[in-house]
Amino acid sequence: MSGTFLGLPAFPEAAAAAVQDQRLRANLRHATGTIRAKRARAVAELADWAELRAAAKAVKDRTLERLDHYLVQLEQNVTAAGGQVHWAADAEEANRIVTGLVRATDEREVVKVKSMATQEIGLNEALAEAGIRAYETDLAELIVQLGNDRPSHILVPAIHRNRGEIRDIFADRMAELGRPAPGGLTDEPAELAEAARLHLREKFLRAKVAVSGANFMIAETGTLVVVESEGNGRMCLTLPRTLISVVGIEKVLPTWRDLEIFLQLLPRSATAERMNPYTSLWTGTHADGPDGDGPEEFHLVLLDNGRTDVLADRTGRQALRCIRCSACLNVCPVYERAGGHAYGSVYPGPIGAILTPQLRGTETPLDASLPYASSLCGACYEVCPVAIDIPEVLVHLRERVADGPRHRLGRAAAAAATYVLDHPGLLRAAERAAARTRRLHPRRLPGPGRAWTDTRELPTVPPEPFRDWWRRNRG
Ligand code: SF4
């Protein structure tokens, strides 16, 4: 996953620092509260929401069961339509493929449609190392890029910024990457949007290469789908000569009939819209010469990067159903307080807590802490349009972490407790010993157990074990 996130502290430390940031908390509270309320209204309009949700879950599960078959079918149809398919086992290979493809065009800059997959692999950094400049064209991604920042939300990557901060970023940084912000720029949304529009338009008109992700890929025709709200995606997908799309292998759907379900679920869950302002679909290259609509050269990079490992886990694989709508982030009380950066990944919030440790493993303190970044309240499961049981996967991953080398002491303590509880005589002796030494008991646990007593009182041991009291008073 992107090197930008490597070396960050584990979730508890990062979250503890984030909750002290009053401005961040105010920005998040306002933004998530607004989206939450709008989404609830948009979803309530559909009488068959539950049926759509069940259908989406079934389609995704059925597709994941035969993923190899649908991916081969997709490859055949993309190739037949004039595109070229590349298979990337990991981030390094994907970056190498994309860098090579851009170099082959002799271009030194690309425009980008917002894409989680390219952030996951750290493509912008890899392109920069190769001397190629990548310009983000989604408004929120542009704010993050100009601010040398990290995204903190899947759908609204600059959700941690307010209007005043965005104005300052535009005024200070736009000139470095192209057209400067207009003089006297205020924090009025219309003015900020106009500044971004002017800044980006010259890039759209100049760019010869675009890089995108895709929300869905349709196996039966080799068609890719991008949904978005700003029109920047449409510009990137239609104007440049060469289009390179980097897409996770789990994004494939068998047929157009399947797509119909997701095009109803995604906009309502994501932006609380009945339908996306822009839904772009393309199949291979266009066949109308240089004046036609769409790319003359199309490359699809199919990205694994840990997904087949996720697929092999019968409980964890439901995370691959995710359509990146962000609804789970917006309802999560932990996300609302800690913000997205605390998750140390391009995938924050509840989905990040189950996806990142599966894609990256649970070896680092950060990744091992993510399955615990939840109160298990279940709100994420309630809103998820593809019915991912996030609490179930969190508990499953906690088991995996607890089985790992970090928790040897905890396992030894549990084994000792099991032994004592299995032997009544020993338990009685232990209870009496604990009662007799109660005044010597520490108020906080030492060593790794300290974190537990940082926020909790250790229970006080009574002066007499209950069994002894019962025998004395009730015979
Ligand atoms: S887990 Fe569900 S709610 Fe969360 S982003 Fe994915 S699809 Fe949306």
Which structural category fits the helices and strands?
alpha/beta
- Spans of at least 5 consecutive residues whose pLDDT stays below 50 are none
Could you tell me how far the N terminus lies from the C terminus, measured between alpha carbons in angstroms?
A: 65 Å
What helical percentage do the residues reach? Answer: 40-55%
- Strand residue content: 5-15%
Question: Biggest sheet: strands, sense, closure?
Answer: 6 strands, parallel
Bound molecules: iron/sulfur cluster
Quote the average pLDDT: 93
Shape: elongated
Number of strands: 10
Radius of gyration: 26 Å
How many individual helices?
23
Biggest β-sheet: strands ordered side by side in the sheet: 1-10-7-4-2-3
Kindly describe this structure.
The protein is elongated, with a radius of gyration of 26 Å. It has helices spanning 11-18, 22-44, 49-65, 67-80, 91-104, 116-120, 123-129, 139-146, 163-177, 189-206, 232-238, 256-270, 307-311, 327-331, 333-338, 349-360, 365-369, 379-383, 390-402, 408-422, 424-436, 450-454, 466-474; strands at residues 84-88, 109-112, 133-136, 209-212, 216-218, 223-228, 242-248, 252-253, 278-283, 297-303. Strands 1-10-7-4-2-3 form a six-stranded parallel beta sheet, with helices on both faces. The protein has a four-stranded mixed beta sheet with strand order 8-5-6-9, sandwiched between helices. The protein starts with 10 loop residues before the first helix and ends with a helix. With 475 residues, the chain is α/β, with parallel strands linked by helices. The longest helix has 23 residues, at 22-44. Residues 269, 322-328, 351, 383-386, 388 line the site of iron/sulfur cluster. Iron/sulfur cluster (SF4) is lined by residues 269, 322-328, 351, 383-386, 388.
